[in-house]
Amino acid sequence: MEIPYTVSTRPDTGLWNAKVGIWLFLASEVMLFGGLFSAYVFLRLDAPPGMWPHGLLNVPVGTMNTAILIMSSVTVVLAWAALKMRRYRAYWWYMLATILCGVIFLTVKLVYEWPQKFEHFGAYIKPEALEKYEQYLGNKHAAEKGLPPRLEITGHLHNRQALNDPNIKEYEIKLDPVNADPTNPAMDRPHFLYVPPTDKIGKIDKEDVERATMFLPTHSAYFASYFTITGLHGLHVLGGVLVFIYMWLPVSKKVYQRNPEHLANRVEVCGLFWHFVDLIWIFVFPLFYLL
Amino acid sequence: MNNPPDISQDPSEHEEYAHNVQKHVRGYLTVGALLLAFTAITVALSYVNFGTRKANIAVAMLVATLKAGLVAAIFMHLAAEKRLIYRILIFTGFFVLGLFWLTFLAWYNPVVR
Questions:
Q1: CB 3.0–4.6 Å: which of A14, A154, B78, B92 could bond A122 by disulfide?
Q2: What ipTM score was computed for the predicted complex, to two decimals?
Q3: Does B79 touch chain A (CB under 8 A)?
Q4: Would you say residue B1 has pLDDT above 50?
Q5: Non-local CB neighbours of A47 within 8 Å, separated by 6+ positions
């Protein structure tokens, strides 16, 4: 028996099956991401002053990835419109463009953004030792300017053995600009362009450190939520790309030849998912990169 | 902006139909350009000091909501969708607002306050 309403609409609802299905699925997705976003809000509201980092992510790269995702949303809707107009060739090209956008987005995340974080190091200083590292923290300057206190010294870890070797008593950090020159007013706000760590090396006694890690989920509530949310979002992008590849391959041309409207409906449903993934990123980008 | 209507079974009407869809395509391109522009605006505004960080967050979230609204209304065709879809989404909206309300309660803590 053939399944009814895969292409034609059900008279009472005016919808075909997959359309209802995808919206029910997206409703559950809203709750999934809603839970994570409310965790973000919760963690951020409860963060003591100075414990929610700013300006640690690369804004131009994030902006570029946002633009790529928006463009892929446009190309997927154009692919669908091309099918509606029965122009398979145009559909094929738009679909290819969408797939490439998704792949670029993931590549930037996995090859550049995340590994760069894994290479970065931060050491939270114990409250009683903050005074000792005033030359790197500039907290008098920060207090004068009404800025939150600086509790962490960041940069590239020069002596990486220090992470595991208990005989090494101090961390040598190639300091980030904000810790190399903390009283410079240019450091009061995050930079738009990424500025790599300087060549100035700061030495920090392990005894004075509350906790020190690379920029991993264990580093802070900020990075825990960053990796969880961007990771789950990345998995969604990956899933979308895989489905789009299937829609783009010759197997799907057979569906098109049998009934073009059937493929158009499939693409519409996948497109709805893709727009949703774009929509999530629209919130992720300012929350983590900018604010 | 409504969705393109379903294609007619009559091949002689296909050309007119294609012309009709083409009009929607122009709309999609405009929305895409708007979204890119809003992205640039979001980035620029984050470097403007609105007094407090709360104000900056409010402004950024306002722009993001506007962008999300455009995506939902035009790309996801929610501007003109069938009733059943709206019903599903009303429930979703109710529960997700409830979720954020719980988060707010945890922070505001009306019992101890």
A1: A154
A2: 0.90
A3: no
A4: no
A5: A221, A222
In chain A, residues 78-137 whose CB comes closer than 8 Å to chain B: 78, 81, 84-87
Task: Map out the domains of chain B as residue ranges.
Answer: 1-81, 82-113
B25 touches chain A (CB under 8 A): yes
Residue A283 Cα, gap to closest chain B Cα (Å): 6
Burial letters B39-63, b for 16+ CB under 10 A, else e: beebbebbeeeeeeeeebbebbbeb
Residue B3 touches chain A, beta carbons under 8 Å:
no
pLDDT tens digit sequence for A166-211: 999 999 999 999 999 999 988 888 888 888 899 999 999 999 999 9
Indicate the number of domains in chain A.
2
Range of the domain at A137: 121-214
Please indicate whether, in this complex, the C-beta atoms of A70 and B35 are within 8 angstroms of each other.
yes
Give the CATH number for residue A25. 1.20.120.80
Query: Does the distance separating the beta carbons of B64 and A14 come in below 8 Å?
Result: no
| pTM recorded for the entire structure | 0.92
Does residue A12 form part of some domain? no
Task: Determine contact: A63 vs chain B, CB below 8 A.
Answer: yes
Same domain for A142 and A207, yes or no, is yes
